[in-house]
Amino acid sequence: MDLRKKVSWPIDPEIWKRPLVVLCILLAAVLFNFFLGSASATVSITFLGAAREVGGSCHLVTAGKTRFLVDCGSLGKAGKEGLPEDPASLSFVLLTHAHSDHCGLIPELYELGFDGEVFCTEATSEIIPIMWRMGRSFSKEKVSKASFDESIEKISAVPFDTIIEKNAVSFRFRRAGHLLGAAFIEIWIADDPDTVKVVFSGDLGSGASLLIPPLEYCSGADFVIMESTYGSTVRDSVKGGGKDPASVGAGTGASNIFRHDEFAGAVGETLKNGGDVLIPAFTLGRTQEVIAALDLYHSNGTIPAGTLVYTDSPTAKKISDIYRSREEDLSGWARRFYSGRILHSNRLREVKSRTSMKVHERSHEPAIFISSSGDLDHANSPRHLMKMFDDPRNLVCIVGWQPPWSVGNRIVSGKDPVLIKYSMGRKHNREWISPLLQAMKVSSFSAHADQEGLVRWLSSISGVRKVFLVHGEYENSRALAVRIEDELGIDTGIPRRGETAVLARGAAKDLLNRSLGKQNRMNKADGNQISDRQADEER
After folding, report:
1. C-alpha distances in angstroms, 265 versus 302, 368, 388, 435?
2. Within 13 Å and on the Cβ side, how many CA atoms surround 486?
3. What is the per-residue pLDDT across 39-90, written as a single tens digit (0 to 9) for each?
4. Taking the CB of residue 259, how many other CB atoms lie within 10 A of it?
5. Helix (H, G, I), strand (E, B) or coil at 431
6. CA distances from 328 to 78, 173, 233, 331 (A)
7. Looking at the DSSP assignment, which residues form a beta bridge with residue 429?
8. pLDDT averaged over the chain?
9. What are the backbone angles phi and psi of residue 93, rounded to the nearest 5°?
10. Pairing of strands 348-350, 194-200
11. Most buried of 85, 88, 108, 165, CB within 10 angstroms?
């Protein structure tokens, strides 16, 4: 049979000779693309910061006409040049947490024409205005007051585990265990007929926090953008010690609660020998964790009873007050140990710097000074160092990551002499010193997951097509990438700054539907029903 005789062209070929008809068809195609194109457009991510470096986290997600950022941080090598083109066209910003290297440049967006919302968790929404004001005080190029005020007004707080729908995008914040309010973000992007699910890790916690609940896990995703700060580091397992936690009022069977034994032992020995202790600590997260550790080790006698602890950062005090007011966001151990008085003790003195500095000038019992900055490069900590460096009985504990060029790194590395820059009143000083005090580097306070923790978290996510490693020096990212590909068999990329990755369509729509269904069921549940998180903490 000749099929050509049975099949005819469905449209009269002569119709194409009519210009008006052709014009209408072309116009219809253009209108279809304009109104519906965003739903079926290719999804892409442009890595504007934290690409092969730590700092400046900023990732542009594009899905048709919807453009949004995940984080917009300072401290990156690109600086303001890492901001996206045409900020006015951005739909919104999603923020993982309040550290400056993730949020510090958001006010600049408003200066450049952005007028959308910044979505973040409730605790983060309370912290970031404090961090932005602190950053503004240090910045030589200040945004206008109008833009700065607008950036604060446009903050939109979202409870953990709540799915928000915006344009063709749905997202929710999950606990990252890094610091108060820190989250990883699950994002579902409509890409008809499917949905692409992308997970941004933000900074993932190490599990070492006394105050913050542990990192949650994620059930599935098509693509994961994951930090790699300590991608080549495998920390020694922290050995528990000291008395049983229940005997110091913790009231919990949690293992590893005495993970800071080495730190506390050195502090206690120094104090018993008549020396003072300086703990340079950053204002957000680290100061609060150090206070909690000192309270714990006061309780079991490792640190002498009656030892006064001075903190003299106004910013740290404001952030500590937020920790105190958000008890529901803290760990079960913290709530039980403090019994409703979070970070309160009769030994803690939150004072102005002039008060803490005067302690050095008078006869006093051995004391502990927690002071910013955490790298001894500015603010009050170098002033304390200048009062303590020449006494070998004293101890400085370095409890956070130190840039290679920092005073903290030089001291803990045994450099001599060391240049100290500090201010007294309006006078700026530069002095070379030969440190005689003891110096100790402490890793147990790290708020970042190591290689083991990162791989364990990623391995819990099913269906991952590709991982992009960010927020890490290349050597660290590369070591992590090799392990991921060898052990998990997941294709892994390490993007350069400015590179764009096009995300293929995935089958993540079912994951979104299941999550929405779970949320609806939770909303209908009895208000007295215990949450999954509470149940986990009681186990």
Report:
1. 6, 14, 20, 22
2. 6
3. 445 899 999 999 999 999 999 999 989 999 999 999 777 778 889 999 999 9
4. 22
5. strand
6. 38, 16, 32, 8
7. 422
8. 86
9. -130, 135
10. unpaired
11. 108
**For the segment 505-534, what is each residue's pLDDT rounded down to a tens digit?**
544 444 444 444 444 444 444 333 323 333
Exposed, middle or buried by CB within 10 Å (0-12, 13-18, 19+), for 361? Answer: exposed
Number of helices and strands (H, E) in the chain? Answer: 16, 22
Encoded tokens for 505: 């369509």
Tens digit of pLDDT for each residue in 451-478? Answer: 999 999 999 999 999 999 999 999 999 9
What pTM does this model have?
Answer: 0.84
Q: Which two tokens stand for residue 331?
A: 């760990």
The encoded tokens of residue 83 equal: 């901001």
Sign, CA dihedral 249-255-260-266, equals positive
Q: Is 177 left (phi over 0), alpha (psi -120 to 50) or beta?
A: left
What lies within 8 Å, CB to CB, of 224 at 6+ separation is 198, 199, 201, 458, 461, 464, 466, 467, 468
Q: Residue 129 and residue 125: Cα distance in Å, rounded?
A: 7
The DSSP line for 456-480 is HHHHT-BT--EEEEESS-HHHHHHH
Q: What is the pLDDT of residues 410-443, one digit of tens each?
A: 999 999 999 999 988 888 999 999 999 999 999 9
Question: Which position has the token pair 């490693």?
Answer: 469
Sign, Cα dihedral of 117, 119, 120, 123: positive
- Residues 119, 95 contacting (CB under 8 angstroms): yes
Taking phi over 0 as left and psi of -120 to 50 as alpha, with beta for the rest, 50 belongs to left
Tell me which amino acid residue 315 is: T
Of 7-16, 235-244, 445-454, where does the model show the most confidence? 445-454
Residue 44 has φ and ψ, to the nearest 5°, of -140, 160
Pairing mode, strands 418-424 and 427-433: antiparallel
Sequence-distant (6+) residues with CB within 8 A of 261 are: 239, 240, 241, 242, 302
Residues 53 and 77 sit within 8 Å (Cβ to Cβ): yes
Q: Judge whether 250 and 334 are in contact, CB under 8 Å.
A: no
With H, G, I as helix, E, B as strand and everything else as coil, classify residue 5: helix
